Predict the 3D structure of the following.
Amino acid sequence: MADSYDLILKGGIAATPNGIAESDIAVKDGRIAAIGDLGRASAAEVFDAKGLHILPGVIDSQVHFREPGLEHKEDLATGTAGAALGGVTAIFEMPNTNPNTLTAADLADKVARARGRAWCDFAFFMGAAESNAAVLGELERLPGCAGVKIFMGSSTGNLLVAEDDAIRAVLQSGRRRVAVHSEDEKRLRERFALVRDGADVALHPEWRDVETAVTATRRLMRLVRETGRRVHVLHVTTSEETEILAEHKDLVTFEVTPQHLTLAAPECYAELGSFAQMNPPIREARHRDGLWRAVGQGLADCVGSDHAPHTREEKARPYPQSPSGMPGVQTLLPLLLDHLNAGRLTLERLVDLTSTGPARIYNIAGKGRLAIGYDADLTVVDLKAQRTITKNWIAAKCGWTPFDGRRVTGWPKATILRGQIVMRDDALIGAPSGEVVRFAECLAPGDSTS
Ligand code: DOR
């Protein structure tokens, strides 16, 4: 008798570890069960994928969905709806919510809030502080925890671990890879006078200048070598840092964002004003070129969106009272597909940056690869679709995107989460069924494999 599956994607071009080639994919019980010519197999549901590419589900390992405490900006339901609409199957949420997620109870609360409301799988970072350094090693092992996040420089919220001694204490507590926002707090304070009494937002990359980022990253590298702790440097923005980080690839991974690969100063501030304001800042074109070089050389390990929405009213405040951050989870993949079509990266590299990379960085269990036995998280894309990104398409509560009106080639056609189609043709389908992402370093004995 022919094999029977829950779902078969037929006739698509699949990005498997063997390369990118036409291949059917079958799903059973939420996992990939067969890959190849499955002409004789039957399934409860058949997805005609002719002319479409099937990628391992996109993992956005840096978003701010703001829950609890900042729900006027975003929440887990709207944030993950945007993720699914943008082809994203898993997100890792940052801890600068209100109150900051510092306790086991806070994490359990976040997981409980996400179940039944999240359109994609999820995990949460614990925020590092001087006060909780000693217990981070325990907290980082809890179910639903993506790891520990350090803010070396202050951004939105009040999480901060600025001094070497405190950073060392955090790095010495626990074992998993630590995610770091690398800007030097001392220099940020010294230079705030540049913008304190009101200034043009175009001065944002002057206040938070190249040296602010480079100084912090050099300090961090010294502490990484001293402690032997693995770190992941978030949203790298300077060409100089990519060269520094290249010296530490045994212990250090790093992220670039679609907005730093797409926008450049000073034009972005002239066009978008404070809607282009984020931390670390969008810088001039030579840095964007440096980040693309890091992508081309295989140095950058992943792309994360740093989805960090603020309302239009908040953004309209005079700089520097205007908050930093922009939405991005939904536009991450369309922007990268457009860059692919412009010849800036290959599809293999795109998959590495959006799926295999995050899985490797964080040791995600059972995701990040189109292979038998892995979760059937699939992002189906039309590489040639020509579309315009509009604010009406954006699910984020803020209702804006810095890319409104941008014409792109390449678009997510469907998002499949552990075998369930949750988005097709720009519409969400069914009910939110997101679950916690599991991590190989923290699987408990007897932990189920699905
Ligand atoms: O621009 C930013 N906004 N950078 C961050 O590090 C935080 C984020 C936010 O939460 O608004």
Q: What stands out?
A: The mean pLDDT is 96. Residues 161 and 169 are 10 Å apart (CA to CA).
